[in-house]
Amino acid sequence: MALPIHPTLASMPRWRVWLIASRPRTLTTSTTPILLATLLAWQQGPVSIRLTILMLLASVLTHAGCNFTNDYFDSVHGVDGEQTLGPGGMLQAGALTSADLRRAIIACFGLAFVTAVPVMATIGWPVVGIAIFAACVAFFYTAGPFPLAYNRLGEIGVFLAMGIAMVGGTYYVHTGTVTGTALTLATAVGLYAAAILHANNIRDIEVDRAHGKITLANTWGKPIAVREYAFLAIAPLVITIVLVIVQPEYWPLLISLTVLPRGLRITGLLRNSNTVEESNAAVPQSAQLHMIFALLISLGLVIMKVLA
Length: 308
What we know:
This protein has a single domain (20-307), classed as Farnesyl Diphosphate Synthase (Orthogonal Bundle), CATH 1.10.600. The chain contains 14 helices and no strands. The protein has helices at residues 7-10, 14-21, 32-42, 49-76, 98-123, 125-140, 154-175, 180-203, 205-210, 216-220, 222-246, 260-272, 276-280, 282-307. It is globular.
């Protein structure tokens, strides 16, 4: 049975409904790591603009497909309801139907595959494996008989797919190898990506627990979960400092340390919040933290190239 559409959405153009449903503000999580890895590869030699654009398109389409999949299966599992906070929610608002979301899921993952084919054909089987892994994490994050997000594996899946695979894979496309530096920065970016999800799970501790969604946050409880968030917010900066100590030529990357106050503020917000509404602000702020860190690392890499 179709839900009554929210009055505000009833007069909204269809394209805008789909745009909001795709959660465009979250898509920086799947684009800035590719930019960072491309600039890191640029330190070693020429990079392919064509392949970079194709990877960006495939990554955005996969991420959008993941967002549609999450909306669909969270609704199927009863986790999302009319009072659910956060992006998406077009199904609950009546603006989109389950059939709409199913078609969008198929379209996004299908187009992502088509876009990635030239990259896979150019580079070979290692990229095929990385693409399949990323797509599986994106889809089975909430889908399938053992959804990652429902079994304490959400943060690990995001860390591996949006950190190690995305940064390491992009670097491999451009250079044909993966270095310790690439994996180090992939780890830092992946931890910040995991922080976004973890903030979301801290916000939803009670709702998730009530609907049988088992996360690290509702397993350990809020005090320990907030400590984990603090680790996720600070560890990437420690990793950056260690990288510069080992390889001093990367000193421009220290500009990324300026995000430390932002990470500490978000940690304090989560620690001191008493309502779901108060802690909700930490989720978009965590996405901004990830974006700013990745952009500052990218800026540092540009400075390195200019000064070389």
